[in-house]
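Question: Now follow the chain.
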Amino acid sequence: MVNRQMNIAVVILNWNGKKLLETFLPSVVQHSNEADIYIADNASTDDSIQFVTSQYPEIKIIKNTVNGGYAKGYNDVLQQIDADIFCLLNSDVEVTNNWLKPITKTFESEPNTAIIQPKILDYKNKNYFEYAGAAGGFIDKYGFPYCRGRIFDTIEKDEDQYNDLAEIFWASGACFFVRSSVFKQLNGFDEHFFAHMEEIDFCWRAKNLDYNIKYNGQSKVYHLGGATLSKANPKKTYLNFRNSLFTLIKNAKAPLFPTMFIRLTLDGIAGLKFLVELKPKHTLAILKSHVAFYCALTRLLKQRKSLPHNVNYHQKTSIVVDYFVNKNKVYKSL
């Protein structure tokens, strides 16, 4: 009996992104012959959809009625797409020749692998990894994310050190391959996140159901990064700190209280650091993130009760201590 070839849907979320689509869509069309390509439009008000319709009539367009961010945007659209594998691709990603084949091969040979991330390099500096995902992500004891190839603001040069197939804890939402069956089983992304870290929460929930998550360094893409919100934007700081707390309290194994106490203290130190750096708006963003966290605590604890908590999620006690105190700046020194 011959196995049926997996059907892949490459789904690009768009919101007023004509310039990005003009730049990055050609590579996706050129190198994705084995996939169906979709534009998931989050109620854009520019002429990006007219551009796609006129220049790429073969691309399917699904329009959302509201801009629900990354989480709701994908949740709404993916309900309307029939495929074995969803590739959630940012609109600011350039893909490369044969980028899909290593991913498909891994899914076909590993039935328990639910999510895969390729190598993500910096579009502006192509010899270096890109901040959002690099060579696959992990979480420390206090919920701080880091990557092979990127710890905090230290970015590694790509010297083929991560050309492997490796088990990781979370895959980047910039280029996120997931089995459609698992996406549906987990009821998609948590829409309370709106944007940032919803993929980490999703991966954590998948891990707690004993699925594997992999990085495949034989597939390579280039990510511009910061196209929607730059690192300098306090709103990004707010979402990252708030959503990280959401993720931790929903998914971490008990006991929670000492972990959360230390984490909130570390956030306070981060806020002071921003003040010293004369970035008071980022300090305020952290304070607002904590207020939002406490306001959402009842809901988060209800969500926690409904979820399993099986996995030992952290490789290191504290990436903050490793990086700032022990001066371990690259993944292989941890």
The chain has two domains: 8-223, 234-333.
